D-aspartate oxidase
Amino acid sequence: MAPKESIVVVGAGIIGLDVALVLAERGYGKNLTVVAEHLPGDTAVDYTSPWAGCNFSAISGSDANALRWDKLGYSHLSKLASERPEETFVRRTESIELWDEDVPHQKIKEMSEYLEDFRVLPAEELPVGVKFAIGFTTLTINAPLHMRFLQRLLTDHYGVQFVRQKLPSIQAAFSNPATTVVFNCTGNAARTLAGVEDAKCFPTRGQVLLTRAPHVQTNIMRHGKGYETYVIPRPESNGNVVLGGFMQKGVSDGSTYSYETESILDRTTKLSPELGQSEYEILAPFAGMRPSREGGARVERDGIEVAGEKRVLVHNYGAGGTGFQAGYGMAVDAVKTVEDVLRQLRGASARPRL
Ligand SMILES: Cc1cc2nc3c(=O)[nH]c(=O)nc-3n(C[C@H](O)[C@H](O)[C@H](O)COP(=O)(O)OP(=O)(O)OC[C@H]3O[C@@H](n4cnc5c(N)ncnc54)[C@H](O)[C@@H]3O)c2cc1C
Ligand SMILES: *[C@@H]1O[C@H](CO)[C@@H](O)[C@H](O)[C@H]1NC(C)=O
Ligand SMILES: *[C@@H]1O[C@H](CO)[C@@H](O)[C@H](O)[C@H]1NC(C)=O
Ligand SMILES: *[C@@H]1O[C@H](CO)[C@@H](O)[C@H](O)[C@H]1NC(C)=O
């Protein structure tokens, strides 16, 4: 028996890491292995998480799931920002969001109940073409370094094991008979991975520019018709700022384009009063693919036949553009679907839950 593989999490993007964290916080760290082709510190066009901007925004969906995940995510990230930002790479940042049209009023009303320093900006202060705008304290995340923080926390503090391996199918994650549950957190691979092959999944490409502009302190984003523009200072990064962006549905092209760079520079200097105030350096353009899914993310328990035996599989993929802000809440829901299985793992060492 290999008790470390009682639970297998496939994928080490933010979604897999958050599932591992929720399980570890519940006492299952030593029963858990994360298996992934790419691990924190890697870059690859099919490893989305390191490319995220990364902020908490009202751009997420308006359905009950999205609302719950956002709220859980905001409180989780706030805690990390309060505790030790220089270690977690999550920081409170002033944020402004503007809408040209289709303002999600009901959603904003619900979010206003927990967002710190929430306010609606007066109509007379809005730039031309903007219908509605809010200010609040967001949480900005240095995505690649936050992921490395999570991996270190999971291994050093909770005893989680990480294995670098590309699985030929999701069934392969069940190769150890001691494995009682597998979490499928494979992002964009969900569309093609044997055993999953979810046709509802599609990539949403975004090009961003990594710049060095230490004078920028405010997160700002404008949601327009057919465009998304944002300026996001990266915490603990020596003044790096992410400028964006694009939301290109169904596009999975990892190249970057000079005309998109021009468009980003043009839009962000108009949007952010701070950005153009001093010289700034463009470090590099990047393109990332948000793992999107028609109908929203899939967080669901399922059964799967492996070598004639029924095994437990939990899906957790399709986070689209919100894996960092919604990931912790999605993980809480994903883990909840297998309470009964987890209880068995505890066996004799059952502990009462607080
Ligand atoms: C430009 C851009 C900006 C963004 N900004 C934000 C933001 O500000 N806030 C926010 O919340 N979100 C943001 N996002 C979205 C966020 O990045 C994604 O929602 C998130 O990264 C999805 O994470 P994931 O874990 O599902 O996928 P991934 O990070 O792609 O991880 C997939 C994992 O599965 C593994 N895997 C896949 N197939 C296999 C296999 N066969 N065998 C083994 N392992 C396998 C991979 O190796 C990897 O470890 C942004 C995205 C982009 C592109
Ligand atoms: C889970 O891990 C604990 C150690 O923390 C161990 O005592 C227990 O046997 C493991 N459970 C299973 C089913 O492997
Ligand atoms: C800001 O956050 C939203 C939602 O989390 C996300 O879709 C958007 O891509 C983010 N911007 C950047 C640059 O990451
Ligand atoms: C695992 O998740 C991916 C999406 O990340 C999906 O395409 C695939 O179908 C899933 N596998 C199974 C067996 O559900």
Remarks:
- The radius of gyration is 20 Å.
- The mean pLDDT is 91.
- Helices lie at 14-25, 64-83, 85-88, 105-112, 143-157, 258-271, 323-336, 339-346.
- The chain is about 25% helix and 30% strand.
